[in-house]
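Lab meeting, item 3. Inverse folding demo.
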């Protein structure tokens, strides 16, 4: 799947996004855009051949550049980590289900709002960490709280931390506040 996501701040300083992708399985070219953190507007074109999709993606890229949209380098983004406290140190089958459902929920919610991407998830002793890479940390934290609550994923066991991309060890807890202990990944 060919994919391109670009951002820019509008005249009021609000972060906007545009993205386009080609889905080979469905022969569909999709353009999605909106304000980061809000449900996007989507337009699909069906029955697109692969060579047409390449041309459409190139035209999309050129138009976005003319309009001031650009990729945000990973180094300029933030780690926003959803962390669940587990009942055991190694995790159970139930925790595997939690990992799968939470990861899918976050992926879908973030994608349609330009909030970022799920980079990975991992189990640490007594914890499940889901790492997202986000251009706007505050909006990503709000998005995590919304989507995980709506999915009825044990919100009482959830903590959220934020760190600069280049220093994940500098993670600071952003939910719940005030933090009762330092946010720890391990």
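The presenter then showed the designed sequence:
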């Amino acid at each position: 799947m060919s994919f391109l996501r670009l951002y820019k701040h509008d005249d009021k300083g609000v972060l906007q996004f545009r993205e386009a992708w080609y889905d080979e399985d469905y022969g569909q070219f999709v353009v999605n855009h909106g304000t980061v953190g809000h449900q996007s507007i989507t337009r699909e074109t069906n029955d697109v051949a692969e060579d047409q999709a390449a041309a459409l993606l190139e035209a999309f890229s050129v138009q976005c550049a003319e309009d001031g949209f650009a990729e945000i380098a990973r180094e300029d983004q933030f780690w926003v980590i959803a962390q669940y406290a587990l009942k055991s140190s190694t995790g159970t089958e139930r925790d595997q289900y939690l990992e799968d459902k939470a990861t899918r929920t976050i992926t879908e919610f973030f994608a349609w709002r330009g909030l970022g991407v799920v980079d990975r998830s991992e189990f640490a002793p007594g914890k499940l960490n889901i790492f997202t890479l986000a251009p706007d940390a505050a909006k990503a934290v709000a998005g995590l709280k919304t989507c995980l609550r709506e999915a009825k994923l044990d919100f009482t066991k959830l903590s959220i931390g934020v760190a600069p991309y280049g220093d994940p060890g500098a993670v600071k807890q952003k939910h719940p506040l005030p933090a009762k202990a330092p946010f720890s990944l391990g």
